[in-house]
Amino acid sequence: MALANISFGTPRKFPQTFIVATDFFSLGYLILIDWKADLDNVSHFLPDKNTFNSSNSSTFTGRNVNFTSDFAPSIVRGPSNLPSVLNQIVGVLDAPVITIWNNNTNFGNGSSAATIGAIDTEHCKSNWIFVPQVYKEDHPYSFHVSSVEMTLNGTNKN
């Protein structure tokens, strides 16, 4: 789980940016609340929500459905007919690639970046390797890693 800035809407010149908690590898849901939604009944214990202004997006297509969501550990579950976050955006990606970069220490210091739809050439060196998907049906974003090598504080770790 990580925090990420994501941008939605067209034109690309004026996207609407949200800070979200991400878990790309589970079957979580991405639900944007439209600015016209009635939030009067939202618990006052919850933080204010940023809303999506669908009027500012030339490609927005409304579902015109009402739903109630309940909170579960780390995710918000909506109606069962919603696809996962990645399945919602996979059709508009430049490439079917997820690049994960991490420079955290064993004390949790550092940062991470997940680039969806492109190879992260800013953080990743040219010696990266492609890891194919394991299960395409049930777990479409699963992959197998047989070993990991890294340098941690000047020491190679396998």
UniProtKB/TrEMBL annotation:
UniProt cross-references to InterPro entries, sorted A to Z: Peptidase_aspartic_dom_sf
Source domain of life: Eukaryota
Protein name: Uncharacterized protein
